[in-house]
Amino acid sequence: MSANDPFARLPEAVSFTVTSTTVTDGAAWPPEQFSSGVPGGKDISPQLSWSGAPDGTKSYAVTVYDPDAPTGSGFWHWAVADIPATVTELPEGAGDDIGSGLPDGAFQLPNDARAARFIGAAPPAGHGPHRYFTVVHALDVASIGVPTDATPAVLGFTMAGHILGRAVLTTTAETPA
User: If I label 2, which of 20, 71, 86, 171 is the partner at 20 to 30 A Cα–Cα?
Assistant: First the structure.
């Protein structure tokens, strides 16, 4: 376990499965999932599919987090709340400026760049590899009850007592010096 393991101090949760046609667990982000500020980057959120969520799941939240960002608090790239329990997939690009691929009722919270959308990877040049945790959280409530302008950290704090399961896909990115 790494010293900056984002799950180290969170309540235990049942594991279920998340997959993607865009990215592979353990592999590097494709160029399209990099920030538009990086050559070739397009800020396109990955396609996600999940299965095996625990009984009692009433909604989902999706987060993308880089614990290796040189901020002292990591960097939240995407946070989506109130995905209905009947939904088990988000299309590639769902996290655009208007959340065009999100189901009714779901909403994006502002990321650490203060934009309510997916923002791609942009590790500082020469900083080494960064890990990106794309997580589907299975929740025991239909609505997590955070305001649409809440931070992803507030979402995480509010979810902590409602997480039934967690599906994790880890990718990496590095910008050469």
Answer: 20
